[in-house]
Amino acid sequence: MGARGPGQRAGLTTRTVLDAALLLIDEQGGGPAALTMRALAERLGVRPNTIYSHVANKDDLVDLLLDDLLTRIPLPDPEAADPADELERVMLDTYRVLLQHPDWVPSFLQRQGSRGPAARALGEGMHLLLARTGVPAEDRQEVVRVLIVHTIGAAAFAAPASQVPQDLLDNGFRRSLGWLISGATQRPRRSSTSTS
């Protein structure tokens, strides 16, 4: 067995680093952008360079944290009775998770989501649902992107500082989400050469 690195000698795992970072962010506010590697190292009782045995840099840590947050969203059921309803459920759950962690929304906006394993699993499930609704293969990635951007944007507008009542924001998101899903899955596509 080879020599253990500093992070292993300190008894750290990637999971313990993420858990400590999540707690620190929740306590200090400001979302992942406000997190410093020095503060995280102090929380873990290690030197800052020890953390780099588990994450490449702060951007890598933020990407891992954003993806970890997405594990709280139940994966799409590819066999759901109504694939469009299941797609709506996934986006509503995503919206609710983002509202529970409003300080994280700017980081999701900056990255237009996450690209880690949880994000990929959610995306693959959405692709399967869109396939069942008849959305052409070449359009599915763009539909997923639009739904994600719309959901993150709606969560940003529903931040606690908003002057609009939360129930109105939630109802507005549900309606607009329904329009997007209906438009993507049911309406006939217009020809790009249409003159109307």
The count of helical stretches stands at 10
Which strand-content bin applies to the residues? under 5%
Q: What are the low-pLDDT stretches, counting only 5+ consecutive residues below 50?
A: 1-9, 188-196
The major beta sheet can be summarized as: none
Would you summarize the structure shown here?
The chain is mainly alpha-helical and 196 residues long. It has two domains: 7-55, Arc Repressor Mutant, subunit A (Orthogonal Bundle); 70-185, Tetracycline Repressor, domain 2 (Orthogonal Bundle). 65% of the residues lie in helices and 0% in strands.
Map the helices and strands:
Layout: H1 6-9, H2 14-28, H3 37-44, H4 48-51, H5 58-70, H6 83-100, H7 105-111, H8 117-133, H9 137-157, H10 166-185
Report on the architecture of this protein:
This is TetR family transcriptional regulator. GO terms for molecular function: DNA-binding transcription factor activity; transcription cis-regulatory region binding. The chain has ten helices and no strands. The model is unreliable at 1-9 and 188-196 (pLDDT under 50). Helix content is 65%, strand content 0%. It has 196 residues and is mostly helical. The chain has helices spanning 6-9, 14-28, 37-44, 48-51, 58-70, 83-100, 105-111, 117-133, 137-157, 166-185. Helix 6 packs parallel to helix 9 and helix 9 (137-157) packs antiparallel against helix 10. The chain has two domains: 7-55, Arc Repressor Mutant, subunit A (Orthogonal Bundle); 70-185, Orthogonal Bundle (Tetracycline Repressor, domain 2). It is globular.
Please name the defining characteristics of this protein.
disordered N terminus; globular; 2 domains; 0% strand; Tetracycline Repressor, domain 2; 196 residues; 10 helices; mainly alpha; 65% helix; Arc Repressor Mutant, subunit A
